[in-house]
Amino acid sequence: MELEKITNGRKASKKRGYQDACGMAHAMDLIGDRWALAVVRELMLGPRRFGDLRADLPGLSANVLTQRLSELEADHIVTRRKLPPPANVQVYELTEWGYEAETIIQELGRWAARSPGHDATLPISGVSILLSLRTMVARERIGDLRLTVGFRWGNEEYLGRVDADGIHIARGSADEGEIAFGGSPNAFAGYVYGGMELEQLGGALTVTGDPVLARRFADLFVLPPKIDPGRT
């Protein structure tokens, strides 16, 4: 009911836009509001419940999340539906067009990772770290490696497949992976991008399967170099 009120209110009074015919300006009208693109990011690997979105966007209030979802729905980027029994819960998911925004998220992430001010120690969500794998995979390092990898972040599980084209990740049973990671997305980021070993992570990350294969997998991902502030 609350979502309907906000949605109807938005239809009655349109957001203030850039009034600019440039496609980039219209994109900012669509996803430029605070938290909008982060919400889209969190839906990039499949539908999620309202509570799941709140949990992975801890700085976002329930009221603002409701507003952003209603705006994204009105702009045909997000849709909502009710899962059939026994789940019988409402979920939000991207439209076919909404999923096309992944390239925007990838390029923004790749560009911003070069910033000297990027703080990699801040919290990162499970979806966000998996999207970073799709962005930062160095295909030239894959060679003949063909591998299935499971990921378990709390109650959410994903299954990845590494092949010559990169890494493909979708919802699935983590137990089906030849190797599987579980625990904290931040600890996983330290393992992949920080070169940390499991012993240094104090149990915050677990690996099931061959640890040598797990390290080989982690070495497939490379962050872009930081800019030199002295040359900007």
Explain what this protein looks like in three dimensions.
This protein folds into 2 domains: 2-100, Winged helix-like DNA-binding domain superfamily/Winged helix DNA-binding domain (Arc Repressor Mutant, subunit A); 117-218, SCP2 sterol-binding domain (Nonspecific Lipid-transfer Protein, Chain A). The strands form 2 sheets. The chain has a 5-stranded mixed beta sheet with strand order 5-4-3-6-7. With 232 residues, it is α+β, with helices and mostly antiparallel strands. It has 10 helices and 7 strands. The radius of gyration is 19 Å and the shape is globular. Helices cover 38% and strands 17% of the residues. It has helices at residues 2-12, 23-31, 36-42, 50-56, 62-74, 96-99, 102-112, 126-136, 185-192, 211-218; strands spanning 78-82, 90-94, 147-153, 156-163, 166-171, 179-183, 205-208. Mean pLDDT is 92; it is low at 4-13. The longest helix is centred in the first third of the chain and has 13 residues, at 62-74. Helix 1 (2-12) crosses helix 5 and helix 7 packs across helix 8 (126-136).
- Give, in order, the helices and strands: HHHHHEEHHHEEEEHEH
Classify the helix fraction into a percent range: 25-40%
Low-confidence stretches: 4-13
Mean pLDDT, to the nearest integer, reads 92
Radius of gyration: 19 Å
DSSP strand tally: 7
Strand content: 15-25%
Give me the CATH superfamily of the largest domain.
SCP2 sterol-binding domain
Q: What is the strand arrangement across the widest sheet?
A: 5-4-3-6-7
Name of the CATH first level of the largest domain = Alpha Beta
Figure out the total of helices.
10
In the CATH hierarchy, the architecture of the largest domain is: 2-Layer Sandwich
How many distinct folded domains?
2
- Main beta sheet, described? 5 strands, mixed
Distance between the termini: 51 Å
> What is the SS-derived class?
alpha+beta
What is the CATH T-level topology of the largest domain? Nonspecific Lipid-transfer Protein, Chain A
Shape: globular
